[in-house]
Amino acid sequence: MRVISWVMALALVLISGFAYAADWKHATALNGTPKYAAGFANFDYVNPNAPKGGQARLAVVGSFDTLNPVPDKGQIASGMGLVFETLMTSSLDEVPISAEYGLLAEAISYPDDFSSVSFRLNPNAKWHDGVAVTPEDVIFSFDAVKKHSAVSQQYYANVVKAEKTGEREVKFTFDTSGNRELPHIMGQITVYPKHWWEGTDEKGQKRDIGRGTLEKPLGSGPYRVFAADQGRSINFERVENYWGKDLSVNVGSNNFDRLRYDYYRDNTVVLEAFKADAFDFRTENSARSWATGYESFSAR
After folding, report:
1. Contacts of 109 (CB under 8 A, 6+ apart)
2. Are 233 and 263 in contact (CB under 8 A)?
3. Could you give the 3-state DSSP secondary structure of residue 221?
4. 94 with 31: CB under 8 angstroms?
5. How far apart (Å, rounded) are the C-alpha atoms in residues 246 and 71?
């Protein structure tokens, strides 16, 4: 009888494990159900036939001295989210639900008690040099931000282990259960190329992901850094052979060939630069400026 009991217990473990491993989802939501079903064509708010081309000029108040988002030290340049990607990405029309859909990861899986989360990487995901994105890249990125960022140490405090569980699968194990937000949080992790950061730069010096740098980084996103003038401007160019251009979450997006961010010291200068046609788009959050700041501009 004891042998039979052990056999039955083992069978139950295997069955439950198989059910968990097979429970892959294309999306996840903190509240309710994701709006977009598996296989959706594109987000409702985009124009899937939007033309590609042109340049958008934007303004930023402040400065920057690094293109490496990992360490807390330094001021990261705007727009680096166009170069680096996360495992999952959010839609813009599900704010109350807070849903995430596959980007670098094509699927997500987690048990009913939310004690862990697994991601299955998209087989087409590539870095700009053509190298495939791997579970090792995900683990490397997680270890790097935990080591070099105090903010990330707190954000991922409940994650006790990151491990490769398949050719394209990575699993994060938590020290607690019942927190449905943790799988969501891990879907937001930015992934960096392990092989590039463990290599050497053009001067033959070994790269260090824990330090700031102005070297143009290798990414997997729809844009790459074209030129960077420290503290003044940064230019991005669209990657023509971007691996994810036909993903449902990207259709109708990333339409400009070039994006430029110019840096200004204060908002007063930014307003005057906008009126002088130095950049193309501005969000106005000052009632006073809205009422009086554009009089000379509108009179043209």
Report:
1. 20, 21, 23, 24, 25, 117, 118, 119, 120
2. yes
3. coil
4. no
5. 32
Maximum pairwise Cα distance, the chain: 92
Nearest to 187 by CA among 280, 275, 119, 97: 119
Q: Which residue positions in the chain have pLDDT lower than 50?
A: 1-22, 299
Structure-block tokens of residue 257: 């060939």
Burial class (CB in 10 A: 0-12, 13-18, 19+), 204: exposed
Q: What is the pLDDT of residues 25-47, one digit of tens each?
A: 999 999 889 999 999 999 999 99
Q: Which two tokens stand for residue 208?
A: 């260090």
The residue whose two tokens read 């009632």 is 287
d(CA 77, CA 69): 8
Rg (CA), the chain: 22
Look at the alpha carbons of 128, 134, 136, 142 in this order and tell me if their dihedral is positive or negative.
positive
Residues paired with residue 227 on neighbouring β-strands, in sequence order: 235
pLDDT value of position 50? 96
Residues 6+ apart with CB under 8 A from 2: none
* DSSP SS3 for 267: helix
Residues pairing with 223 in the sheet: 238
Per-residue pLDDT at 220: 98
Q: How many CB atoms lie within 10 A of CB 32?
A: 11
DSSP labels for 82-115?
Answer: GTSEESEEE-SS-TTT-EEEESSEEEEE--TT-S
For residue 71, count CB atoms less than 10 angstroms from its CB and return exposed for 0-12, middle for 13-18, buried for 19 or more.
buried
In this structure, the chain runs to a length of 300
Q: What is the DSSP letter of 82?
A: G
Across 213-250, b (16+ Cβ under 10 Å) vs e yields bbeebbbbbbbbbeebeeeebbbbebbeebbbeebbbb
185-240 pLDDT tens trace: 999 999 999 999 999 999 999 999 999 999 999 999 999 999 999 999 999 999 99
